[in-house]
């Protein structure tokens, strides 16, 4: 018999790791060309994206994911401090 709960947890964790990679790529795609001229709408969109990703990872309770989230947020903050 398969451990479906463990499989689900692994799949969820893998999905959330991919989401962190996507987050960093998405910020570069959306905002890199606008670095010095972000609009209020840009800032609001970026903050909504950050909130959604942070909330989905916080509810997982995985220390590894929380560490990866911190690393990803530090990278984004370094490039885009206006969102922090």
Description:
This protein has 84 residues and is mainly α. The mean pLDDT is 89. The chain has helices at 4-31, 40-58, 63-79. The relative contact order is 0.15. It is elongated, with a radius of gyration of 15 Å. Helices cover 76% and strands 0% of the residues. α1 (4-31) packs parallel to α3. It has one domain (4-83).
Total DSSP helices: 3
Assembly state (oligomeric): single chain
- Can you give the helix content as a percent range? over 70%
Q: Given the C-alpha coordinates, what overall shape results?
A: elongated
Which secondary-structure class do the elements indicate? mainly alpha
For this entry, give a set of tags.
single chain; 84 residues; mainly alpha; 3 helices
